[in-house]
Every structure is written in C-alpha cells, then in structure tokens.
C-alpha cells in the first residue's frame, strides 16, 4: 500500500503571488507580528496539513518595495511555532554554504529534541550574490562544487545525528541537485507545471535513488501547487486577474532575476522572444528551463507582462485557479496517477487564501486519508526515518 500523501503548506507573509501584498486585505500591518504566523500554522494544522515549510533567501530584503515574503529568521520562528502548535511539523531552509556544519548540527539536533522529531531541513546550496554580500562578500564556489561540498557535510551530519536527525528535504532540480537528493533526501520539492513534468521528475528521482542503493519508496516527490480560490470559477479568475494587475515591474524584475533572467528596464510591454539564462548566474539555474517551456507555450510574441501574469506566484509550479472542488480534483488526479507523493501547497494570498483552502479544498481530500494529519509522522516511517522515541519519564512530566 502506498503511504499516505504528505501535505505541506508554504508560508509567505501576504501570499505567494507577487501582487498579493498590495491587496486591500493584505496583512502588511502584521509584518512583525509572530502571532500572525502562529495563526497560519494553527489554520493549516486544522486543515489537515502534515506541516509547514519556511523558505529562506538570506540577503533578500524581506521589506523590498516589490514584494513581502519572510520577515523573520526561520529557525527561531520555527522553535516558537513547534512549541505552540502540537502535532504540526515544520521544514525550514538552511544553506550549507553560509553557515558551518557544527552550527547545522547543533541547530537541528536542538529543534529535533524540543519538538520530538517534528523538524525537517530543506538543504539548499545557496549561491546568490546578494547572500554572499550579506555575509561579507565571501567567495561562493560554483554550482556543482557547492553540491559536492554539501554531500560531504550531510554525510557527516547524518552520522553524528544518528537516529535523532531531521527529515531531510531537498529542492534542487539540476542534474547535480537530483543526484544529491537521490543520495540524501526523504522528501523532494519540485516545480513541475504539468502532470507529465511531475511524472518525469518522480520517475527520474526514483531511478537515481535505486542507483544510489536506496529503496525508491524512501524518497517522496512533492510538487508545488499554487491555489487561487473562489466560490465560483469566475470569482477565482477575477481574483487572479486582480492579483496579476498588482504586480509591479520592479517585482517582476526581482522575481526573474532570482532565476538568472534579466528583463531590460522599461521592457514590461515588449515581446520576450527566447528566454536567455545569464551564463554567469550562480543562483537557481534550473528554473529558467521550466520558464522557457512556458514561454514557448504562450508564444514568441508574448510580452514580459504576459509572461509574468502566467508565472506570478507559481514561478514554474503547477497553478490551479478555481473552486475548492476544482483544486481538489487536480490534486486527487495527480495522486491517483502516482505522479507525486503529496504536495507543497502555495496560497496566492494570505490569510484569506489559507482559510478558503481549509474550508473548500481540505474536505475533498479528507476522503482519501489526507486531512487527518496522517502523513507525518505515520508517513515518515515508510521513509525509514529513524524516529526518536521519547523516554517515559519525559512523557509523564
Ligand atoms: C519548493 C521550492 C522551495 C525552495 N526554497 C528555497 C529556499 O528557501 N532557499 C533557497 O535558497 N532555494 C530554495 N529553492 C531552490 C532550490 O532549493 C535550489 O537551491 C535551487 O533549485 C538550485 O539548485 P538546482 O540548480 O539544483 O535546481 C527552492 C526550490 C523549490 C522548488
């Protein structure tokens, strides 16, 4: 029997869509309110999610005028949420480049202990120049070398942690990224806009895991899905149009630059032509390929504004705009066809998009066992994650 699908919620302050922070309902006045994130965590826990995911891009100003994403440092925020919200699991992002192995060892050992094993580590091999600047202009190795270094670090950490280790998550899609994931990851996040792309990613990962001497069932592939919800399909589409109209040119440039694509100044209404990945881009390189396929689909005369309207919020992930039943139908279809092992759910806007999801999508998924927090830790066991059993005296205090 295949394990219960895993379901994570991706937390972004105002929502994942680049226009969301400009909605009148946006919670920008709560930017520095930890209670906002606690409420988010409680909502998704009530909605049956296994856990929440915090991305982290150190050096990107969370309060830039173009978009608001993550105002808090995720490790400390995770500790507070783990304490306040029982049964919820949290995956946080930490880079193998801008810290030391000792720090990673201590941080995750501590979080593992204080949460009884409810912590996961999204292992990233950051190469962004902005992050390098934030750390005193250190020289960052090239893309593949960073994975090689990470490989050694994770080998040693796994040995040191033993059975008290975090869930290991990875989200690199390049050849070296997938090879790394096949060796270490329990869970892989991926940006696959179509079912075929998801199937191909999952099949490739499973093949690589087997080649690395692992049981392919130990590695679980979770694509992202951006949800834009309405009580009717028309309402959802209208919300999507509103959000797209709120994306500033600056936000668009910022988003594209993360993937090594530069939009010339003042070119928002010019045709994109063929997408070109900056040859020297040392950050996320694999996404340009996914976006290039999207450009091909919408046609060579598409403008930058049209491209951005297509990828805003999803940025290469699956995107579904519709009613709760529409979104659940797509998720159930992907799960039925075994092109994925769960999802990482993104909300076009927050907090409304989260409460809408819990009210309108979760009930449709409960029927298949998702929605009762069944995915983890129960589902973590088939991942052969050695689970630390608390001693009885700790339980009784
Ligand atoms: C769902 C998802 C979440 C990600 N979160 C982060 C993140 O928080 N921080 C980061 O630096 N990279 C993040 N990434 C990027 C990847 O982890 C990875 O660093 C990037 O794809 C470069 O590796 P690649 O060239 O092997 O794809 C994320 C990717 C995906 C698909």
From TrEMBL:
Phylogenetic classification of the source organism: Bacteria, Bacillati, Actinomycetota, Actinomycetes, Mycobacteriales
SUPFAM superfamilies reported for this sequence: Bacterial luciferase-like (SSF51679)
- Tell me which family the UniProt entry assigns to this protein: Belongs to the NtaA/SnaA/DszA monooxygenase family.
Provide the protein name: Luciferase-like domain-containing protein
Q: Which GO terms describe its molecular function?
A: monooxygenase activity; oxidoreductase activity, acting on paired donors, with incorporation or reduction of molecular oxygen
Among PANTHER family, the record links this protein to: ALKANESULFONATE MONOOXYGENASE-RELATED (PTHR30011), C2H2 FINGER DOMAIN TRANSCRIPTION FACTOR (EUROFUNG)-RELATED (PTHR30011:SF16)
What are the record keywords, sorted?
Flavoprotein, FMN, Monooxygenase, Oxidoreductase
Q: Which organism is it from?
A: Gordonia lacunae
Q: Does the keyword Flavoprotein apply?
A: yes
Instruction: Name the Pfam families for this protein.
Output: Bac_luciferase
Domain Luciferase-like stretches: 26-311
Record InterPro entries:
Diverse_substr_monoxygenases (IPR051260), Luciferase-like_dom (IPR011251), Luciferase-like_sf (IPR036661), NTA_MOA (IPR016215)
Q: Which of this chain's residues are annotated to bind FMN? A: 56, 93, 143, 147, 174
């Amino acid at each position: 029997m295949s394990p219960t699908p895993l379901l994570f919620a991706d937390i972004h302050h105002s929502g994942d869509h680049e226009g969301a922070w400009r909605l009148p309902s946006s919670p920008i006045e709560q930017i520095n309110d930890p209670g906002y994130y606690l409420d988010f965590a409680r909502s998704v826990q009530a909605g049956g999610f296994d856990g929440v995911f915090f991305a982290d891009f150190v050096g990107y100003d969370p309060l830039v005028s173009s978009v608001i994403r993550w105002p808090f440092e995720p490790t400390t925020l995770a500790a507070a949420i783990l304490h306040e919200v029982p049964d919820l699991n949290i995956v946080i992002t930490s880079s193998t480049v801008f810290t030391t192995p000792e720090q990673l060892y201590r941080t995750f050992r501590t979080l593992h202990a204080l949460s009884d094993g409810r912590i996961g580590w999204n292992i990233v091999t950051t190469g962004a120049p902005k992050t390098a600047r934030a750390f005193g202009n250190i020289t960052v190795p090239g893309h593949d070398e960073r994975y090689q270094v990470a490989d050694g670090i994770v080998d040693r950490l796994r040995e040191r942690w033993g059975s008290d280790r975090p869930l290991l998550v990875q989200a690199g899609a390049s050849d070296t990224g997938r090879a790394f994931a096949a060796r270490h990851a329990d869970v892989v996040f991926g940006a696959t806009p179509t079912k075929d792309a998801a199937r191909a990613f999952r099949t490739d990962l499973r093949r690589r895991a087997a080649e690395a001497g692992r049981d392919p069932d130990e590695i679980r592939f979770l694509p992202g899905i951006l949800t834009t919800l309405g009580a009717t399909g028309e309402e959802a589409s209208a919300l999507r149009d509103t959000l797209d109209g709120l994306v500033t040119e600056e936000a668009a440039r910022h988003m594209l630059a993360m993937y090594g694509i530069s939009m010339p100044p003042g070119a928002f209404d010019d045709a994109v032509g063929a997408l070109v990945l900056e040859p020297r881009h040392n950050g996320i390189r694999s996404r340009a390929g996914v976006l290039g396929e999207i450009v091909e689909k919408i046609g060579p005369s598409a403008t930058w504004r049209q491209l951005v309207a297509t990828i805003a919020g999803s940025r290469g992930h699956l995107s579904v705009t519709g009613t709760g039943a529409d979104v659940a139908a797509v998720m159930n279809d992907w799960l039925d066809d075994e092109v994925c092992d769960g999802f990482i759910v993104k909300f076009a806007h927050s907090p409304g998009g989260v409460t809408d999801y819990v009210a309108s999508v979760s009930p449709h998924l409960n029927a298949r066992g998702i929605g009762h927090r069944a995915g983890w830790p129960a589902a973590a066991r088939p991942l052969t994650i050695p689970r630390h059993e608390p001693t009885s005296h700790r339980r009784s205090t």
